[in-house]
Structure formats: structure tokens, C-alpha cells
Write the C-alpha cells for this entry.
Amino acid sequence: MSNNYLVERLDNITSTDLTNLRLFYSCIIGTNATSFYQYLNDLSNLSINIQKTHTLDETTEFLLLTKDQIEDARNKLEAIGLLKSYNWDNDGILFSLKRPLNANEISKNSFISSFIIEKLGEEKYQSLLKNQGIFTFDKENKRDISKKFYEVFDLSKINIKATKFFNNFEVMNNKNAIKTMASEDFIKFITGNESSPSQLLMIKKLRKIKFNDNCINLFINFSINVNKIIIVNYIEKIAQDYAKRDLFLADEVDLELNATYLSKKMNNNISYQSEYEDIEKTSEKILNLCGETNWDD
């Protein structure tokens, strides 16, 4: 091991993280590796200049460990995922510290959990999880009824060109809305109106065909860009055609629809969001370019 090294810490390592290190990891990696990790973390906190070089000689003197013991501690930290090591300039090493897993994350990691149970026993392991875990209600089958930003605030006068974050909420652009919104919410987001009965029925039909909301939103967005409105029959026929071709993944649907626009742009120099003077004529041309002329039958 080289005598010179640098230390970086990409994650914020809190006192709780260090407690988790001692409670969950020390039984696996031992006290030397635990001490070495905490020492490197202290160095990263104390170093105003990230380029400050540290030496192995100083480390062995401070921790009262031999170089072989430091090397063994380093290997264990790397193996358990708490440390990454990189060759650096002038035969030095860069140590990159990783945050210890918390109790919830450890409970889902069968590899680390098995080691802890072997060392401490099942009863002690479960006690640690209970004391250190963060418990929440099971919301898997519950409907999220939280208000979206656009439902509370008027965005009509704001030109949103990209996704922006404000503390704990997000203002969505169209691309993100297509991926994350329920189709009923997406229609309201993109039109400003609640879904009509025919639109709700369309969404129900497409879900029954096994399209997820991401795919349905792509179909809706396609119709709006081509026709400037949501045409239910038009969308349903596109979806039925895709279903026959076994195209149910959102990425596949997106690629197919984008290919139509790309062909149109190359042939007529009309962009994705451009205005169409003759809606019916343009729709027909786009369908012909994809070889899918039966959508409007």
C-alpha cells in the first residue's frame, strides 16, 4: 500500500450513520476496520482542502496499528462496500468513503444480514433492526391523493422549459409528466380540463389491454401533437395496433411514435411541436410514413 493518500466523501455521513457502522458492521469487519473508517471520515471533515495529502505513517501512529493491519482494514472496508480505492498521482491512492447502510437497507440486503446473524444471532439482529429501523405505514395499496403543484398554482403564465425543484416538490415538464402521472391527471395537466367520460372509458380500455399509464400518456401526447386535440378513437386504434404487434413497453412505444415524427421532420421539415395547417391531411401523411394507415379506418 502506498504511503500517500487522499480522502473524499461523496455522501453526508451523519452520527446516525456512524452508529449503524458500529452496531451492524463492526461484528463483520472488526474493530480495526471500524476505527480506520471513522478516522478517514474525520480526515474528510477536517480537511478544508480536499487535495490535502495524508500519509500511512501518520495513520499507523495515530491508530496504533501496523501497516499490515491498516491494509487488512482497507480490504475489509472495500469488500463490504464502505470504501472505494483508486490509483492516484505519484503512486498515491484516493480513498472514497461510502455511507453505511441503515437498518432498513440492511434488512433488504440478505448478504450482510446473513453475516450479522451468524455473528450476533437472530434475536440480537432483530433487536437491532427494531431499535434502529425507520418504520412507516404500508402505502402500497393506497391511492395518493396529494395535490400536484399545477393543481394549486397557476402555471399558465410561466414558461417552464425544464424540470425544476423547489424544496420537496417538483414542477413537471411534459416529459416527466408523461412518465410519472396517472393518465387522468396527465389529461388535466396537458389540457387544463378534467377527463371527459369518453376519455375515462378510453383509459380504462387501454389499461385492460395491459398498457400502463406511461404508454397511455404517450398515445395521448401523440394525438395532441398531431391533431391538437385528444381524439379517443384515433388513440384506441393506435393502441390496438401496437397491442397486435406486442408493443407494450413504454420505451418501445415512445421509439415507435418518435420514429413517425422523425420521418415527418425529415420529409417535410416540420418539427415535433409545429403547427399543422391541415390536420386531417397531416395525420394521414404521418400514418403512411409509419405504414400504419389502418388507425383511422
